Amino acid sequence: MAHEMIGTQIVTERLVALLESGTEKVLLIDSRPFVEYNTSHILEAININCSKLMKRRLQQDKVLITELIQHSAKHKVDIDCSQKVVVYDQSSQDVASLSSDCFLTVLLGKLEKSFSSVHLLAGADAAEWDWLCAECQQHLSQARLHPRVALPASACE
């Protein structure tokens, strides 16, 4: 089903290059079910998965996306509304192919209202996924040695 364009696609190599450069802060959101997230995920990714209740609350603006990110994170997240956001679910290939009522479309739309740069990571096969997790883990671990200053969550609302 066609819908207004939200977000843009990003490929695995570009994501790794972004993380490798260290010049931009990247917020990673894993929108897969918790079991898949728990099995394997990109280090520092925040799991925000679909439930009918959460989808409805987002659609009705009963929860702010910044609140959902903070609630879903394992630790306090410094949210900067100018940072890049990359969402992945390991199966979606293209933003244009998403149905207008699926959770991922709702999530991307809400993120786009709060962040200046929102991207959907193109789905990767199993070999690419393993490579991506390893690459991202290496670069994010190095980035911890050089923390960047971020605005508080309230600055984005």
Automatic annotation (TrEMBL):
<protein>
    <submittedName>
        <fullName>Dual specificity phosphatase 16</fullName>
    </submittedName>
</protein>
<dbReference type="Pfam" id="PF00581">
    <property type="entry name" value="Rhodanese"/>
</dbReference>
<dbReference type="InterPro" id="IPR036873">
    <property type="entry name" value="Rhodanese-like_dom_sf"/>
</dbReference>
<dbReference type="InterPro" id="IPR001763">
    <property type="entry name" value="Rhodanese-like_dom"/>
</dbReference>
<dbReference type="InterPro" id="IPR008343">
    <property type="entry name" value="MKP"/>
</dbReference>
<dbReference type="GO" id="GO:0017017">
    <property type="term" value="F:MAP kinase tyrosine/serine/threonine phosphatase activity"/>
</dbReference>
<feature type="domain" description="Rhodanese">
    <location>
        <begin position="22"/>
        <end position="134"/>
    </location>
</feature>
